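Structure ticket #2291
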Amino acid sequence: MSRFLLPAALLLVTFPVLAQKKDADVHVDVRPDVKTGIESNTQYPTIQMAMDHAPDAGAGRVYVHIYPGVYHERVIVTQNRPRMTWIGMGSTPSDVVITNSLNAKTAGGTFFTETVEINAPEFEADNLTIENTAGNTGQAVAAAVRSDRAIFKHVRFLGHQDTLFADYGRQFYTACYIAGGVDFIFGNAAAVFDHSELHVLAPGYLTAQSRIKPTETTGYVIANSHVTSDLEPAASGAQAQHTFGLGRPWRPYSRVVYLNTELPASLDPGGWNNWGKTANESTAFYAEYQSTGPGATPATRVPWSHQLTAAEARSYEPGTFLKGTDNWNPELEAALLP
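Resolution: structure written out below.
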């Protein structure tokens, strides 16, 4: 045997095969009956504790099973916590309630009031309620969402002014319920609200989208949904006191489109508002396609809004509008949630 060769057995010892670590999904529970959260690394008494201490899933997903109860807390999902899925374990979304009560005056500004703040990508939530109970006291955010490829299914968002700050990334809301009175869906995300109910509590505006330049791919699409209202239809000459609008431009290039959505009689016949700036009429893009219900009156809409053709409407369908360069399919992913 040559002095330059080693026995095969020795080769196996000298050059071992290293096992590769595999990413795996993580499952943790949040339960009101858990005492401190230090007894294990899979059960916690609060949602925030789960966000802070749940094991890392690597490239996998962390599933947080939230058991029925009212969770009086503010929750922040930080940027280093991607791919979180919250699942309410009750029979309906009202069985799991995440609640707080802060308005802009007490918190020091609108963007310190949110009950839940989501900053990480690929967040999901299903079968729960997020609320801000400050009521009609000014800006009071229930949820601030800055998450690309975010999905909300069977989620209730309850508030009054500025209920949902849909601010950044592609977001898909399906079978959700969103209630508020003034600008209660606002921000600059590319967001689709599909097969959902948007409920108006008081005179005001449903959306205040904030696209700042025409090249941005952001905007809101309300598709296959229905808008409901606590308001009575306005008497002649009293529209401003008794009706609401579909939207007004928080920023000049605001974009909002309603597709196949039922509108109530208490909608202002003009539909849209320029927020006191005539210049916004030439930059904002507000449109409808096949609206239904007593509020669907195309002939009375402000002249600078649009009624889309079938071909134009197709570019705003959920799978197309949110597709992006990575071919995201939010409808397919949402179907995989419970």
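Closing remark: The chain has two domains: 22-180, 220-226+234-338.
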